[in-house]
Amino acid sequence: MERNIKVLLVDDHEMVRIGLAAVLDTEEGIEVIGEAGSGEEGLRLAKEYKPDVVLMDLVMDGMDGIETTRELLKLQPDCKVIVLTSYLDDEKMYPVIEAGAFSYLLKTSRATEIADAIRAADRGQSVLESQVASKMMNRFRQPPAQMKAHEDLTDREMDVLRLLAQGKSNQDIADTLIIGIKTVKFHVTNILAKLDVDDRTQAAIYAYKNGLAE
To answer: Which residues are annotated with the PTM 4-aspartylphosphate (predicted)?
Structure first.
């Protein structure tokens, strides 16, 4: 006879917990061993009952689902956390996945889908609701952010650019940095080339737009 998968429910809405418990108790091989109305209570019950799977809400008073997931997996690294939430925004989705959530479902999921996700998690298989999977794929399809042109400037060239943006002449820059006028001209030429701009004015505009000058 196969063992039951021990499931802990963590959600601050009592009616949600009651509904989930009632549905999951009818599923073969799944046993709801506890219900928690907060992240803090969820950690306490997880430490006591050692569940195989935790159904985790994201938005709760006190300790939210992200922090609870992170702390729970420190206590029980082998536990599988399935996020069950109404939220699809990036500010919540990506941090909880990075915290170690194994699967991510929406509360609009059918009871059979939740039960299947629990069984899959117990087998070591992640499940992502289709909208979640689509968002993640779109995120990874995006090209990496291009390096800003000024990131290729040396420290000395950055000093020259900041002074140039203040309207300083080559002589002023030379006096401020205690370097030769020819050295200043050399740095200015390099700065224009690296920033791909035509003159000092465009270089100054670039510096202000990128927060490099006061």
So the answer is: 57
pLDDT at 148: 73
pTM over 0.90: no
- Cα gap 4→115, rounded to integer Å: 12
Query: Quick one: pLDDT at residue 85?
Result: 94
Domains annotated for the chain, with CATH where assigned, are 5-141 (3.40.50.2300), 149-209 (1.10.10.10)
Phi and psi dihedrals of 167, rounded to 5? 90, 10
Contact 127, 120 (CB under 8 A): yes
Residues 6+ apart with CB under 8 A from 76: 46, 47, 50, 51
pLDDT of residue 107: 93
What type of residue sits at position 143? P
Say how many CA atoms lie within 13 Å of 23 toward its Cβ. 16
Give CA–CA dist 150/37, Å, rounded. 50
Angle (CA) 202 207 210, round 5°: 120
Q: And the tokens for 28?
A: 């073969």
Q: What's the CA gap between 64 and 43, in Å, rounded?
A: 12
* pLDDT mean across residues, the chain: 89
pLDDT of residue 143: 54
Measure the CA–CA gap between 203 and 197, rounded to whole angstroms: 6
Provide the strand spans (E) within 86-160: 103-106
